[in-house]
Design goal:
CATH class of the largest domain: Alpha Beta
Order of helices and strands: EHEHEEEHEHEHHEEHEEEEHEHEHEHHH
Radius of gyration: 21 Å
CATH superfamily of the largest domain: Glycogen Phosphorylase B
CATH architecture of the largest domain: 3-Layer(aba) Sandwich
Strand order of the largest sheet: 3-2-1-6-7-8-9
Number of domains: 2
CATH topology of the largest domain: Rossmann fold
Largest sheet: 7 strands, parallel
Shape: globular
Structural class: alpha/beta
Oligomer: single chain
Number of strands: 16
Number of helices: 13
Length: 372
């Protein structure tokens, strides 16, 4: 009898942070036994190909609406209602089809990174489910009910799906009500030392590298060829060009870059960018100072910001501080921050061990109301 264990994996396409967190987990699970992962999402396939060495299949699937964003820093709750209503209207037939597919693929368990559809697929297919979460969508939606009352009846269906999880595993930094055992931040490990990455980027000894990253949601970086930087600073900007190019002291990288993103974070003198889970987890691990743009309307942001203030080297910046006249001072402030503790292991090994064990911990069986 084969010892191969097959998992179906549903990943929200809300940015890239949940997908990269999932990749870290799948890599660790793969090291602990023969596994095959069937990934259901609309996150680009290349992200999984670049991140995973384990055996996996990719199934394009609209498994989650999440929150519609008009930019990396702003949300559109009205558009979210329309998309979520359409999604829920067609969900019954989609769930039935996915449950059949999961059974055909002989998946023994379904893992979900906050995509509640996968939990309902598991219930329909008759297989156990595990949700990995730092928030749940019902918590996010509830914060928009006053401005968008039409969300309220839709949230009820999402809550029902979320409640069906066999096991809940919570990763720091989390927000809302913690309903599962807590694990340290989960993130992809670096692949090479900082000097190797800096050499690949063409940086000289003594130059400071600042990484400007806005996550997986497109962002208009403006006219970077006219950016003035402090002396000896090179600004590296993933997602700002179709192909790699150097404009003076600015290095533009494509969204799908051959340079592994965790290596960029770890080798940087400082990171400038959006306050998002994966970036926070990576700067926590590497100790890289972080100048972050908060999303004041997004309910996760205060919890991430509090975590950065407490456990990282960080400073909050406002969007106007990224303009031509203020960027120099912003970068100087970022580079004045001391580097934090590095090489933190994070919660990935413990999280994978808990999933492999198939056990429910005492803390899961007795949910606690703990804010992140």
């Amino acid at each position: 009898m084969s010892s191969l264990r097959r998992y179906a994996v549903f990943v929200t396409p809300h940015g890239f942070g949940h997908a990269t967190r999932t990749c870290a987990l799948l890599e660790e699970l793969g090291r602990r036994g023969d596994t095959r992962f069937e990934i259901f999402t609309t996150v680009p396939r290349w992200l999984f190909e670049d991140s995973l060495s384990v055996d996996f299949g990719y199934h394009p699937c609209d498994c989650d609406v999440g929150l519609v964003q008009s930019s990396a820093l702003s949300e559109d709750s009205g558009a979210t209602v329309l998309r979520l209503q359409a999604f829920l209207d067609t969900a019954p037939s989609l769930i039935a089809a996915l449950a059949r597919r999961v059974r055909e693929l002989e998946c023994a368990e379904i893992l979900c990174d906050i995509a509640p559809l996968g939990l309902e697929v598991a219930r329909t297919a008759g297989v156990p489910s595990v949700v990995i979460e730092n928030f749940v969508w019902s918590f996010i939606y509830e914060n928009y009910l006053e401005e968008t009352p039409a969300l309220e009846p839709l949230v009820e269906g999402i809550r029902d799906w979320e409640a069906s999880a066999t096991r809940r595993l919570t990763v720091r930094p989390f927000c809302g009500v913690r309903k599962g055992e807590i694990f340290d931040p989960v993130f992809r490990s670096i692949r090479q030392e900082g000097r190797e990455t800096r050499d690949r980027l063409g940086l000289h000894e003594g130059e400071s590298m600042v990484l400007w990253t806005m996550g997986g949601i497109p962002w208009d970086f403006g006219s970077l060829e006219r950016v003035v930087l402090p002396e000896g600073v090179v600004l590296v900007v993933p997602g700002a060009a179709e192909e790699e190019q150097r404009l003076g002291s600015v290095l533009l990288l494509p969204r799908h870059s051959p340079i592994y993103h965790p290596d960029l974070v770890a080798s940087a003198s400082g990171v400038l960018g959006k306050l998002g889970y994966s970036t926070v987890a990576e700067v926590w691990s590497s100790g890289t100072p972080f100048a972050f743009l908060s999303r004041p309307q997004f309910p996760e942001s205060p919890f991430l910001e509090e975590f950065v203030d407490r456990e990282c080297r960080g400073v909050r910046v406002e969007p106007q501080q990224l303009t031509q006249g203020s960027l120099v001072e912003t970068i100087k402030e970022l580079l004045s921050l001391p580097r934090g503790k590095s090489r933190r292991l994070g919660g990935t090994p413990d999280l994978a061990a808990r999933i492999r064990s198939g056990r429910t911990s005492d803390s899961e069986s007795q949910p606690a109301n703990i804010d992140g």
